[in-house]
Amino acid sequence: MLVTGGAGFIGTNFVRYTLEHHPNYRITVVDKLTYAGNKKNLEGLDIEFIQGDICDSALMDELVGNAECVVHFAAESHNDNSLCDPSPFVQTNIVGTFQLLEAVRRHGVRFHHISTDEVFGDLALDDPARFTEDTPYRPSSPYSATKAGSDHLVRAWIRSFGIPATLSQCSNNYGPWQHIEKFIPRQITNILCGLTPKLYGTGEQVRDWIHVDDHSAAVHAILDRGRLGESYIIGADNDHVNNRRVISLICELMGLGPDAFELVADRPGHDQRYAMDSTKIRRELGWEPRYTDRDTGMRAGLEATIAWYREHEDFWRPEKESVESAYAKRGQ
Ligand code: NAD
Ligand code: DAU
Questions:
Q1: What number of other Cβ atoms are within 10 A of residue 277's Cβ?
Q2: CA angle, residues 241, 287, 178, in degrees to nearest 5
Q3: Is 61 a catalytic site residue?
Q4: Is the pLDDT of residue 294 over 70?
Q5: Residues in CB range of 328: below 8 A, 6 or more apart
Q6: Dihedral through CA 187, CA 72, CA 6, CA 271, nearest 10?
Q7: DSSP run (H or E) holding 198
Q8: Does the keyword Lyase apply (predicted)?
Q9: Does the C-beta of 292 come closer than 6 Å to ligand 2?
């Protein structure tokens, strides 16, 4: 199995999940090691690691040619960064996916494309609808537009060239090894540093949070039993939980009052609500999320994630100051 972007947040968790639950796979990770990738995340694991760029067509040809299947996570992934400089997003998310698809076309290898719920745009806060596999694409940010572009390429390569591929659109992940630029680890590490947690705008926005291990299990269900050519939405039914509730819960779980956060400048073009209807993957492939509870659906997963960041200061501490000073310049 070739895993692109395996030194990033979800890729690292997916590689670890695969070694534990599907030890029949021999894994090669290819990762450019941008600011978001860290080779140390994979230290001690029985895998092959190649530092490389998915835009490098000769390298992709060689690596894809040696694989039986490719799981494609590599991407520029942070919306806020895409608002400052969209260029690497176009390059990696669109051109990089194109180079992989061409290699897959030449070698006839099984391909799974990791996409995101953001390709569908957003819902109004009072709209009870949920995204399904048939929801039209309406991306809002440079990040989500480039992810949508890559999905269109994958579908075109399926239809025009018959490549054996599947896609999945998952909602917001949380868990260990997530970069501290992202909402949940930013707040946890703020509290660990004695800084005040930061909520954009009024915090009414809704993200349909899912634990990263549930995402990994869903990808394996698709690799094992998914129908070629199909897309699968992955979500854990947390679309009743807004950002304000999540930040309050983090504050409470870390011994602060539920209002111990501050409001900061909003994200331009901020998507309001994401909500996933994951009926198809549940019915067809028998997948179910395991991290669920009656409260926000996140308490147990958040407790474990907070404990992980407490114990893994070496993962985040070196970058904390520079990440926060970049946010501070934007009033966030
Ligand atoms: P991340 O930013 O933590 O990791 C991305 C990884 O890709 C990094 O290791 C980086 O070094 C690598 N990379 C970037 N450009 C590369 C290139 N040109 N060549 C090779 N490697 C490159 O991202 P993540 O949060 O782990 O997201 C992984 C994938 O999952 C992305 O495709 C993202 O769109 C998708 N996704 C993320 C979420 C989420 O909540 N984080 C939800 C749904 C889908
Ligand atoms: O929906 C899936 C997407 O989830 C993935 O495709 C992206 O790769 C991933 O980064 C994530 O995108 P979001 O923009 O939703 O995630 P982020 O962690 O940046 O922000 C989550 C919400 O929290 C969002 O409404 C903005 C808000 N936020 C974010 C930060 C960093 C804050 O209120 N405060 C913050 O400090």
A1: 18
A2: 50
A3: no
A4: no
A5: none
A6: -10
A7: strand 198-200
A8: yes
A9: no
